[in-house]
Amino acid sequence: MLESPHTEASHSWSSAPVSKTGMPQGIVSSNLTASAMTKKLLADFLFLLHGMVFFVVLYGWFVPSLQPLFVATLIIILIQNIFLNYCLLSKWEFNLRKALNPNLEYNYNFTSYYIHKFTDQTITPQFMRIAGIIFPVVALTIIGYFQFFYA
C-alpha cells in the first residue's frame, strides 16, 4: 500500500510520537537540550562514518590508494562479526538514538535497519551474520591470492 509522503512518521519503523508538523517529537525539534543535540549530532556523525565504511567496503578493491584501508576494514568487520556478532559503529549509533527515543526498536545491524527503514524490506539477522563473515573471508582470500601470485 502506498502512503502519502506526509505520513512518513507513521511507518512501522518509526515509533516516536508525531508533532503537529509531522516530525517525530523529541528527535527533530528546535528545543532539544544541549545533551540531546550532542547525542543527535554524534549519532548522525556515526551514520555518516558508517556510510563511508560501507563505501570503502564496496569500492575499496577498485581504488588502489584505498586498498590498505579496504583490507583493514575487512579484517575489522570479520573480527567484529566472529567475536561480537555486531558492528561497534551500529551499537554506538543506536545507543545514542535510543537515548533520544527510547521507543526506537533496533534489533538489526546498520544495513538491515536502514534497508528496512527506507524500503520496508526485512533482512534476517542470520543472513547478515553469514554475509558479514563470508564476504570479508572471500574478499581477503581473493586479495591474498593476487598479492601472492601476481605481485
In short:
The chain has one domain (30-150). Helices cover 61% and strands 0% of the residues. It contains 5 helices and no strands.
Key traits:
5 helices; 61% helix; 151 residues; disordered N terminus; mainly alpha
Shape descriptor: elongated
Main beta sheet strand tally, sense and closure: none
Q: Report helical residue fraction.
A: 55-70%
Mean pLDDT: 80
How many helices? The count is 5
- Number-wise, the strands total 0
Number of domains: 1
Low-pLDDT runs of 5+ residues are 1-14, 18-23
Distance between the termini: 54 Å
Please compute the radius of gyration using only Cα atoms: 18 Å
Order of helices and strands: HHHHH
Task: Output the structural class.
Answer: mainly alpha
Strand proportion, as a percent range, falls in under 5%
Structure report:
With 151 residues, this protein is mainly alpha-helical. The chain has one domain (30-150). The protein is 61% helix and 0% strand. The protein is built from five helices and no strands. The protein has helices spanning 34-59, 67-83, 88-100, 110-119, 125-150. Helix 1 packs antiparallel against helix 3 (88-100) and helix 2 packs across helix 5 (125-150). Mean pLDDT is 80; it is low at 1-14 and 18-23.
Helices and strands in order, then pairings?
Layout: H1 34-59, H2 67-83, H3 88-100, H4 110-119, H5 125-150
Helix pairs in contact: 1-2, 1-3, 2-5
